[in-house]
Design goal:
4-stranded antiparallel sheet; Helix Hairpins; single chain; 9 helices; alpha+beta; rod-shaped; Heat Shock Protein 90; phosphorelay sensor kinase activity; phosphoprotein; about 55% helix; 5-stranded mixed sheet; Beta-Lactamase
Length: about 425
């Protein structure tokens, strides 16, 4: 930028100097002609006033002007005439009035070498002042650009420090109403976004590593059980009791089912992380809840299950809603050891435009500090018999529908756990 400005100035200064000199020369020439012609007109006026020749010459005399008055009789007044040359400007006039000056010849001459000297002086002044202006401008530009572009140097240093692994530095411009100030502010915003994304990515990576380690740990138990049962079966002799053989086969089935369930849950979580694809359609919540109640009564006949609330419908994926409700009911069954009470409540909140499915039991409940932690992956409760993935999967399904799943106190204040599934009601309808 400094070199460009100096190049422009180097072009502009000579052009400006030439223009100034040309204007000066033209104006000086015009002034000289005006002076000589004005003196000649003054001489005509003085002659009409019958001013004596000597006084006339004295009155029209001026600095730089040579006056010669020659009467008709040959008598001369003023300076003797000079031979015209290239540096002599001459104006001749014949006086038309006066007793002694009528018919006299007036010669006015001026030496143009004075103008040439002034022109040369002006040229030198322009050259010297132009060179000085160029030097001063160069120094001013260098210092000014260094000061003005200091934020760019700071930005470069900050970028290099970040590239070297040092985080947290910011430009923090004092003014954001200039181009560089706005650039520095945008640079800080970009760094905030990048470092935030980097922290998120590192956190996700750390969580993924922990998740993989926990999943491997969880899979190790059923796989070890499968391996032990299989090896024991292979080592059985023909005279081994049938009961022993059936116990090992049952262990194989149970552990393989447990491993399969864990793998299926891991796949569901992977689908949630990748962006779950839903197949929504109208779903009647009472019918869905009754189907799960019938299933629950088959596996836990001693469990009391009650359903309350209107028959509401939502536009959702019925398979995913079934998984959510089945998971919550299985958790309630486990919490009450299959002999407690479970309530399913369906209601709507018109002011929030949501539909809520509440599943609550009379078990020991979930302590407040653990009510968010149980939604983390591979976290087991005290009475949990699963893989620790059911609730994270259920919450993932709820959020994929634009809803939420939370654990709260029971609204009636009784002991037990209460899970609330909230779904958006934008496309819901009430069935009488």
């Amino acid at each position: 930028m400094t070199v460009t400005a100096l190049v422009v100035l180097l072009v502009v200064l000579p052009i400006t100097g030439l223009a100034v000199k040309a204007i000066f020369d033209a104006q000086a020439e015009r002034n000289l002609n005006t002076l000589l012609n004005g003196r000649a007109q003054l001489a005509q006026q003085l002659a009409r006033q019958n001013v004596p020749p000597a006084n006339l010459v004295r009155r029209i005399d001026a600095d730089g002007v040579r006056v010669t008055l020659t009467l008709r009789g040959g008598q001369q007044f003023g300076a003797p005439p000079v031979e015209p040359t290239g540096q002599i400007r001459e104006v001749r006039a014949t006086l038309q009035a006066g007793q002694r000056t009528r018919g006299a010849t007036l010669i006015l001459t001026a030496d143009t070498s004075l103008l040439d000297g002034a022109s040369r002086t002006l040229r030198r002044v322009l050259l010297i002042s132009g060179g000085a202006a160029l030097l001063i401008t160069a120094l001013g530009l260098i210092l000014g650009m260094r000061f003005a572009l200091a934020p760019l140097d700071a930005m470069t240093s900050l970028a290099r420090s970040i590239a070297a692994g040092r985080r947290g530095g910011r430009l923090q411009p004092t003014r954001t109403d200039t181009e560089l100030g706005r650039t520095a502010a945008a640079f800080d915003e970009m760094l905030d976004s990048l470092e935030g994304a980097e922290r998120t990515a590192r956190g996700s990576e750390q969580r993924m590593r922990q998740f993989v380690a926990d999943a491997a740990h969880e899979l190790r138990t059923p796989i070890a059980g499968l391996q032990t049962a299989a090896e024991t079966l292979l080592q059985l002799t023909p005279d081994t009791p049938t009961q022993r053989r059936e116990e090992l086969e049952l262990l194989l089935v149970r552990e393989s089912r447990r491993a399969g369930t864990l793998v299926a849950d891991l796949l569901e979580l992977a689908r949630i992380d990748a962006g779950l694809e839903l197949r929504p359609r109208p779903v009647h919540l009472r019918a869905l809840a009754k189907a799960q109640i019938d299933r629950l009564r088959l596996v836990a006949p001693s469990l009391t299950v009650r359903l309350a609330g209107p028959d509401l419908s939502v536009f959702a994926d019925p398979d995913r809603l079934t998984q959510i409700l089945a998971n919550l009911l299985d958790n309630a069954r486990n919490a009450t050891a299959g002999r407690g009470e479970v309530d399913i409540l369906i209601n709507s909140a018109a002011e929030h435009r949501t539909i809520e499915i509440v599943v609550q039991d009379n078990g020991p409940g979930v302590p407040p500090p653990d009510r968010e932690r149980i939604f983390q992956r591979l976290v087991h409760g005290e009475r949990s018999q699963g893989s620790g993935l059911g609730l994270p999967i259920a919450r993932g399904f709820a959020r994929a529908h634009g809803g939420e799943l939370v654990c709260t106190d029971r609204p009636d204040g009784r002991p037990g756990a209460c899970f609330r599934l909230r779904l958006p009601a934008a496309t819901t309808s009430l069935t009488p």
